[in-house]
Amino acid sequence: MIYKIKMNKEDYFKINNKLISANVEINGEDVYFEVEAGSYQILKKSNYKYKLIESFRSKILRYLSKYSLIIVGLLFMFSILYMNAFRISKVQFNRETPINDEMEQTIRSAFKKLFFFNFCNLNYEKISRQFRVKYPQYPYINVSLKQNVIFVEIYNYDEVTHPADNSTPGDIVAKKDGIVDVFYVYNGENQVKKNEYVQSGDILISGSVTDKRIQASGLVMATTYEKYVLSQEKNTTESQLTDEKDRYVQITFFGLKFNFGKDHHYTQFEQNSTTTFNFFDFFTIKQIEDTKKDDIMKTYTYEEALEYSARRIEEDFQKSQVNSLEKIVALRELKCEETDQAYTFTFIVKKYESIGVFQSY
What we know:
By secondary structure, this protein is an alpha+beta fold. The chain has helices at about 10-15, 35-45, 55-65, 70-85, 100-110, 125-135, 300-320, and strands at about 5-10, 20-25, 30-35, 50-55, 85-90, 90-95, 110-115, 115-120, 140-145, 150-155, 170-175, 180-185, 190, 195-200, 205, 210, 210-215, 215-235, 235-255, 255-260, 270-280, 285-300, 325-340, 340-355, 355-360. The strands form seven sheets. The chain has a five-stranded antiparallel β-sheet. Strand 21 (about 270-280) and strand 22 form a beta hairpin. The protein is elongated. It starts with a strand and ends with a strand. The mean pLDDT is about 85.
């Protein structure tokens, strides 16, 4: 740091040999000069009179230097308070529904991990509107942040209604053919009746009400029939997890990965990782566990292939399930075509499911 000094000319020349001066100016009986911190300390310890002349910048720098610890502490405190406003402790739902896991996964994909905490700067009004459009089977979905908890409120049709979101006008249309059973209209005008056969693309709930266009929402449950054709090879090679595991630490620094304690390099493996530290994705520390996989030969009999194919249909249905009312009513094999290499099954599946999807204008 540079100090600008004003001093009597005679006194200055008496101590000049002990100082390292710069920009010396003589004005009458006074001398103006600049010194660095070391020379300034020597001058302070002397008995000579002087006047410290500071610029605004030097005053600020001296002030910051003097109170640096207090300033750093205050900045740290305000940073913690600011960061705490975005810290997330958990995602909480007001009820269990089949769409909870999918919605939570969407929300958590926006999380950023810092140290041991999750942070999120989602636009909660925007994500709420997206969910209402994606899941029109529910009359109202709202996502909000309260005291570091993300609350997801999902309402049913027998509960108190909430203001409709009309930001995206459109209809609820049939995504497939079916026979209508029950329907709940939350917003818009009903276009179907019980036991009515509807085709894919038909309007179930209209968003055109009198002279307005609004966002239709509602639930239409129907009985549907669908044909599935699945092939299953008789002899397959499947990967199976073994008991052999490799645990190690992975450090990522600006996209570069460094593994510590890694003993094996499996050709096939299943990896599970836990992030223990994350500084805005620039620097992360993870605990990694790789579980080795081995290839095994599997030969399917007719019965095994039939059971496996039926299970694939059921699992796919469960993954796309949007409410607890949906179910597979019946699953029947129509025929099986067999070759030397595979079985090809044709199924007819009777389902009870929600057939309405939102379609904007």
